[in-house]
Amino acid sequence: MKTLVICSGGLDSVSLAHIIAAQGELSRLVSFDYDQRHKKEVEFAAAAARRLHVPHHIVDIRSIGASLTGSALTDDIDVPDGHYAEDTMKVTVVPNRNAIMLSIAYGIAAAKGDTGVATAVHGGDHFIYPDCRPAFTEAFDTMQCAALDGYADVSLVTPFVHKTKADIVTEGVAANTPFADTWSCYKGGTHHCGRCGTCVERREAFHLAGITDPTQYEDPDFWRAATGTATGTDSHQETA
Length: 240
Known about the structure:
Radius of gyration: 17 Å
Mean pLDDT: 91
CATH class: Alpha Beta
Largest sheet: 5 strands, parallel
Order of helices and strands: EHEHEHHEHEHHH
Number of domains: 1
Number of strands: 5
Structural class: alpha/beta
Helix content: 25-40%
Number of helices: 8
CATH superfamily: HUPs
CATH architecture: 3-Layer(aba) Sandwich
Shape: globular
């Protein structure tokens, strides 16, 4: 297979890129600029492409993103603090984001002769993001097979769709993913804030996986209160 990876620059997608590269199947990385407040993530995707020696396509969909209003990721709305399992996090939904990105990625894959489009959606996304759930990914793959019927044979690759973020950390370590060179925080500051849903989920995943987190957080301890994790339960040393 020749597999295109949709890569935001976050822990999940960069890990996926390294895993597929280790399998000898990575063809290219595709990232999207939809005028997200944390667009610095694209810089980390670009670094991953250079590290893995594959082309990096940055697709400018800012005009589309401007129409996808109502999200804290694209509008002047505060990104909430807390865990993804809280209803307040629904304000981070960008309507139909994955469907739009996947459609473009399938077109690129068909044009370039790739046979797979890989996305790092995972089980932890299911609660809040409908376009990360198995029902969506399975239906989308079926739709795209019909859309490209007779022109290209491209399949959707979702190895994490039934896995946890901790599972991704474990598999990412095995593929030598440099976690310090990934960006998750939705607030897009100088360092990870440590308080938004992606930061809390990221920090908790390292804890559950029993792997040292190299990330520098502005608030390194907030995740404990957000997840109900007691102080002193780490199996490894906290890093600043």
